[in-house]
Amino acid sequence: MPRRPRVTLPHLPLHVIQRGNNRQACFVADEDYGFYLDWLQEYADKTGCAIHAYVLMTNHVHLLLSSASGDGVSALMKALGQRYVQYVNRTYRRSGTLWEGRFRSCLTQEEGYFLACQRYIELNPVRAGMVPHPAEYRWSSYRANAQGEASSLLTPHPLYLALGADAKARQQAYRELFRDELEPGLVDAIRQATNGNFALGDSRFGDQIALALGRRVQPGQSGRPRKLREPESGELL
Does residue 17 carry a pLDDT above 90? Predict the structure, then answer.
């Protein structure tokens, strides 16, 4: 069966996950995490991508990013993946693949879903039982987004900037978002969309993206396909 084309559009956030092959460890030493983040920034700059959030787990990576072009994220992940695999193979005297094939991704609706997806990413170490609070995990964007830790890698998304009038207010408002756990249904929706290369959002968002791309971008349902709604006058996709 042919692979489904990626659901991507310029300037709209994309949640990306890349796993180690057979769930093997991708990061062993602190230097591994550091090099990956350095190269992530280098290739994000070269491909016109903006990184909004990230977490590096032992055997997989989550990124929330947007690109000025439709193929920017793919170019970033290809260059970054190859550079990092070369480093790992040379450092640990191994050969062969490191990653589990193609990275998985989902286009993310900004209103109502973007900040939830950002929280989902930064809460990964908590859900995995590695730390009791995301601030205690070193290899994520939480400390920068919630506590003001300096980071030249991150580009704040407009929805994050809208949380407060200044950096201190934004960080306080962002920390408040983490007082409550994500709803299980929302966690499942993020996972399903990312693993299936679908759009993450409500049905209206799905219809808009489907019209823009000319193909289905949400999980199929039994029965005849539903007719897509045409955009109203003046409505932006």
Answer: yes
In a domain, 28, yes or no: yes
In a domain, 131, yes or no: yes
Can you give the residue range of the structural domain that contains 42? 14-201
Tell me whether residue 155 is in a domain. yes
Query: How does residue 2 score in pLDDT terms, banded at 50, 70 and 90?
Result: low
Per-residue confidence band for 235, with pLDDT thresholds at 50, 70 and 90? very low
3-state secondary structure 129-145: CCCCCHHHCCCECHHHH
31 within a domain of the structure (yes/no): yes
Look up the CATH number of the domain holding residue 146.
3.30.70.1290
Tell me the mean pLDDT in the region 201-222. Answer: 86
Q: Structural domain tally of the chain? A: 1
